[in-house]
Specification:
The protein folds into five domains: about 1-20 and about 25-55, no CATH class; about 85-140 and about 240-305, Calcium-transporting ATPase, cytoplasmic transduction domain A; about 330-415 and about 800-1015, Up-down Bundle (Calcium-transporting ATPase, transmembrane domain); about 425-455 and about 650-790, Rossmann fold (3-Layer(aba) Sandwich), CATH 3.40.50; about 460-645, Calcium-transporting ATPase, cytoplasmic domain N, CATH 3.40.1110.10. It is built from 38 helices and 26 strands. Strands 10, 11, 14, 15, 16, 17, 18, 19 and 20 form a nine-stranded mixed beta sheet that branches. Strands 8-26-25-24-9-21-23-22 form an eight-stranded mixed beta sheet, sandwiched between helices. The radius of gyration is 38 Å and the shape is elongated. Belongs to the cation transport ATPase (P-type) (TC 3.A.3) family. Type IIB subfamily.
């Protein structure tokens, strides 16, 4: 048996190699024999091991040769490793299996990946990997279909009651009036109800689709990979197995994989395990990385081993559906308002029900022939039931009109519309509530770099010792010092340089600061990064973060095995670590107090010119010192190499955006990690501080993070509102400021881009993360992502936030006018004459106009400059303001008086019958709402037509409403229970409705107190002085 297996495998090996021994030359025969001998010996050992184990004999342990290669003799996918092994490797954290596969390098080799140059970016190679290992996407749960939303609309209690009434009306109508005429009323109610259901379902379905589109955009993260030796950003969905991915602080790990190389890499695995403790990932003990986790410290490069549904994260996400039913604070307040109005409507409907039943059973109501509808035992049971159904339908329809179901719909529509428009204005909303909360913001705490400035950095100043050097004069500096600079820049960086084989243009990647320093080193110092890194080996790295404001590296020179520490960071912090410095000749000089003061003045001078000042320092260390320090770098007794000043110009338009916010009553505070002089210079340039401002005012307005941190809680609360600039701040200082401002009653918006900004972004009322420089951790903690990192976009978000709130108030004003008028008219008519002038179908049509079409018309108004002239809306300010009540009550009273006049005197005024009179009431009522919709466009301005030509949606909806109303009156007589009107009657209806415009103009001339009416009522109840 052993022999047969042996010969079979020999044949397979020869087949795999594609050669028969007879066809080989002498050299190839030798190689072939050697290979077969090695393979056979391993096969025999393997068989011997299995045989021994089967006989329960302890096998002899034969160590593997130090250099071995795993050969997959059945390469089904074209790679030397199967998919299952790759999936199981990180999941089980199996180091023994990894060693068997030849370590991370062995896996990379099996995946045909060059650890330094990455994979080939050719389409065929990528397609081959997609086919073998899948794509980096996961199956999402099926999205809610249109029928789901249709069913949800059907389940509404009022809709169910109306459908029940429609069914009864249809049945009894056909029984009483016959099949030819009896179906009309019932079917009309059915059609009207289905129309309301359909519109509601379509609106909710479209909103859900909008959320799906936004989630696709927010999930599409840009990841840095190395392909063809070039570092380049690609979409997370384009990652394939075998890719080499670059990781830095704040990044999301895009797929499962293994660490190729890294320094001080700390991973937050809480999204996977729920454990808050950060996990250290290194090459020796724990090289396993998991999709969906976050990098909280350090940097490194990883090899992707499984993607998409083959990762734990992918399997988990495929089970989770995103809930787009998030209820915002404003929606919660509107629910309360809807509930209150609904209770009033129910009360009125119940009274109408009681009055109509009493009038019917007492014989007060008469039919078309003037006979009593109820005449005791003479009345048929069918007639009684039919009359009862009509009465119940009328009462239920009053409830439908009274309950302002359009309010939540208006919020949904205006939020969905504003989210779409904000996307075009470079702001991606992640949480709906942020749209409306932004309208109430009183303070914006903003970063400097990339938000107020352009984030396009360039080295403009270079100081060595106490001398400054301009471009082209570096030849006078000692070559030894230049070499030290090259070491400090090339090894202590998270950036990279790629030089294409054709052409001489370098491609530099990394953060803007790193790119500026690397570009300067290549252009001015003639640095060859590959040459420098070849001559040194990195031993340990301390990565940069916003708390330390510096980064360091411990390196070993291969030429002489000496160990050196290089530091780079904020100039005054690096200077504090130095005891000596180099002059241009390469001579080391001590730093005494006088020289330290001179260096501080140089730093302040650069900072006052809006430059970011970065210093470089180094020190040679002994091996014993390294062993004693236990992986912390030497921080004392360093030698200062030199300093560079980096210019980052302010963004164009940022000064105007800051002024717009200030004009709108919103305070703008700049919180930056830069030193106090740079911070003051930039803040003055942006308009946060005024030039030639009084020194006493400046001392209160500008502060350092450490000073603010060391205040007592009382001192902080006293000074926090005066502070406009905080320099040298840590993320904790930013969090502290947000907490203090919120305690003072402010609605705070905060911008942030770093991982350490996450607590402040979460604590703020509105967290604004940066789309370009922002880390994934920051984005996940924020409510809105500013896609272009520009402060002007923050000001635009503020405008949209105010617009959302304003549009909803417009709709509330419009709807309450309709509610009050409809309730009073039906109630008075029912009590006085026992007749409801507006039928169930007509009221449902009015409901459709004001709920859906009205919401669409008023929710899509764009922001105007007027919005930025008003102060922010406070948290406790009522939704229905005094101004709104001033606009609502006169319009409602006018509509009630006109329609009641038509109800009681319409027949004699126009000389018409009851049917035409009811049509006149219905037509006038609808046209009043059309004209009043124009009044609702402006809450305070008398000119309601301003900018109307720019709102095509509003004009379109008004046009559609008028056309449909003409159809209802003139052509759908049986459906709407109406009669045709002549031109004079149409003219009278339009004339009566048009009076709404002059009433609106006059009413807006009446001044109103700012204090809410409710506060006067509360004071009266409590017997307090007003």
């Amino acid at each position: 048996m052993v022999s047969s297996i042996f010969h079979a495998n020999i044949k397979f090996v020869e087949l795999l190699l594609g050669a028969e021994p007879s066809n080989l030359n002498n050299n190839k025969k030798k190689w072939h024999s050697a290979f077969v001998t090695i393979y056979c010996s391993r096969a025999l050992l393997s068989l011997n091991k299995k045989y021994s184990m089967s006989k329960s004999i302890s096998p002899t342990k034969i160590p593997r040769s130090p250099s071995y290669t795993v050969v997959n003799l059945n390469p089904e996918n074209g790679f030397e490793i199967d998919q299952m092994s790759l999936i199981e490797l990180p999941k089980k954290k199996n180091l023994a299996q990894l060693r068997e596969l030849g370590g991370v390098d062995g896996v990379a080799e099996a995946l045909q990946t060059d650890a330094e140059r990455g994979i080939d970016s050719g389409e065929k190679g990528i397609a081959k990997r997609h086919e073998a290992f899948g794509s980096n996407t996961y199956k999402k749960p099926p999205t809610k279909s249109f029928f789901y939303f249709l069913w949800q609309a059907f389940k509404d209690l009022t809709i169910i009651i109306l459908l029940f009434c429609a069914a009864l009306s249809l049945g009894f109508g056909m029984k009483v009036h016959g099949a030819k005429e009896g179906w009309i009323d019932g079917l009309s109610i059915f059609i009207a109800v289905f129309l309301v259901i359909g519109v509601s379902a379509i609106s909710n379905y479209r909103q859900n689709r909008q959320f799906d589109k936004l989630s696709k955009v927010s999930d599409d993260i840009q990841i840095d990979v190395v392909r063809d030796g070039r570092r380049q950003p690609i979409s997370i969905f384009e990652i394939v197995v075998g890719d080499v991915v670059c990781l830095k602080i704040g990044d999301q790990v895009p797929a499962d994989g293994l660490l190729l190389e890294g320094h001080s890499l700390q991973i937050d695995e809480s999204s996977m395990t729920g454990e808050s403790e950060h996990v250290e990932v290194n090459q020796s003990r724990n090289p396993f990385l998991f999709s969906g986790t976050k990098v909280v410290d350090g940097y490194g490069r990883m090899l992707i081993t499984s993607v998409g549904m083959n990762t734990t994260w992918g399997q988990m996400m495929s089970q989770i559906s995103r809930d787009s039913d998030e209820q915002t604070p404003l929606q919660a307040r509107l629910d309360k308002l809807t509930s209150s109005i609904g209770k009033i409507g129910l009360t009125v409907a119940f009274l109408v029900l009681v009055v109509l039943f009493v009038r019917y059973f007492t014989g007060s109501t008469k039919d078309e022939n003037g006979k009593k509808e109820f005449d005791g035992s003479k009345t048929k049971v069918d007639d009684i039931i039919n009359a009862a159904v009509e009465i119940i339908a009328a009462a239920v329809t009053i409830v439908v009109v009274a309950i302002p179901e359009g309010l939540p719909l208006a919020v949904t529509l205006t939020l969905a519309y504003s989210m779409k428009r904000m996307m075009a204005d470079n702001a991606m909303v992640r949480k709906l509530s942020a749209c409306e909360t932004m309208g109430s913001a009183t303070t914006i705490c903003t970063d400097k770099t990339g938000t107020l400035t352009m984030n396009k950095m360039k080295v403009t100043n270079f100081w060595l010792g106490k001398e400054t050097f301009s471009e082209g004069t570096y030849s006078s500096i000692a070559p030894y010092v230049i070499e030290l600079f090259k070491e400090g820049i090339a090894l202590n960086t998270t950036g990279s340089i790629y030089k294409p084989s054709s052409g001489s243009e370098f491609e530099i990647s990394g953060s803007p600061t790193e790119k500026a320093i690397l570009y300067w080193a290549v252009q001015e110092l003639k640095m060859d990064m590959e040459e420098v890194t070849r001559g040194c080996a990195i031993v340990h790295v301390e990565a940069f973060n916003s708390k330390k404001k510096r980064s360091g590296v411990l390196m070993k020179r291969t030429m002489d095995n000496t160990m050196w520490v290089h530091w780079k960071g904020a100039a005054e912090m690096v200077l504090a670590m130095c005891s000596s410095y180099y002059d241009a000749s390469g001579i080391v000089k001590d730093i005494d107090e006088k020289r330290k003061s001179e260096f501080e003045q140089i730093i302040q001078g650069m900072a006052a010119s809006s430059l970011r000042c970065i210093a470089f320092a180094h020190k040679q260390v002994e091996v014993k010192e390294i062993e004693d320090s236990k992986e912390t770098l030497e921080e004392h007794g360093l030698t200062l190499l030199g300093m560079v000043g980096i210019k980052d110009p302010c963004r164009p338009g940022v000064k105007k955006a800051v002024e717009d916010c200030q004009y709108a009553g919103v305070n703008v505070k700049m919180i930056t990690g830069d030193n106090i002089f740079t911070a003051k210079a930039i803040a003055t340039e942006c308009g946060i501080l005024k030039p030639f401002e009084d020194e006493d005012l400046l001392s209160d307005a500008v502060i350092e993070g450490e000073e603010f941190r060391n205040y007592t809680p009382e001192q902080r609360m006293e000074r926090v509102e005066k502070i406009r600039v905080m320099a040298r701040s840590s993320p904790f200082d930013k969090l502290l400021m947000v907490q203090c401002l919120k305690q003072k009653g402010h609605v705070v918006a905060v911008t942030g881009d770093g991982t350490n900004d996450a607590p402040a972004l979460k604590e703020a009322d509105i967290g604004l993360s940066m789309g370009i420089q922002g880390t994934e951790v920051a984005k996940e903690s924020s409510d809105i992502v500013i896609l272009d990192d520009n402060f002007a976009s923050v000001a635009t978000v503020l405008r949209w936030g105010r617009c959302v709130y304003n549009n909803i108030q417009k709709f509330i004003q419009f709807q309450l006018t309709v509610n009050i008028a409809a309730l009073v008219i039906n109630f008075v008519a029912a009590v006085s004459s026992g007749d409801v002038p507006l039928t169930a179908v007509q009221l449902l049509w009015v409901n459709l106009i004001m709920d859906t079409l009205g919401a669409l018309a008023l929710a899509t108004e764009k922001p105007t400059d007027e919005l930025m002239k008003n102060p922010p809306v406070g948290r406790s300010e009522p939704l229905i303001t005094n101004i709104m009540w001033r606009n609502i009550l006169p319009q409602a009273l006018y509509q009630i008086s006109v329609l009641l006049t038509l109800q009681f005197k319409g027949k004699s005024i126009f000389g018409v019958n009851d049917k035409v009179k009811d049509t006149l009431i219905f037509n006038t009522f609808v046209l009043c709402q059309v004209f009043n919709e124009f009044n609702a466009r402006k809450l305070e301005k008398r000119n309601v037509f301003e900018g109307i030509h720019r709102n095509g949606i509003f004009l379109g909806i008004i046009g559609i409403t008028i056309v449909l109303q003409v159809l209802m009156v003139e052509f759908l007589k049986k459906f709407a229970d109406t009669e045709r009107l002549d031109l004079v009657q149409w003219g009278a209806c339009v004339g009566m409705a048009a009076v709404s415009w002059p009433i609106g103009w006059v009413v807006k001339c009446i001044p109103v107190p700012k204090k809410p009416v409710s506060s006067y009522l509360k004071a009266a109840v409590r017997h307090e002085p007003i």
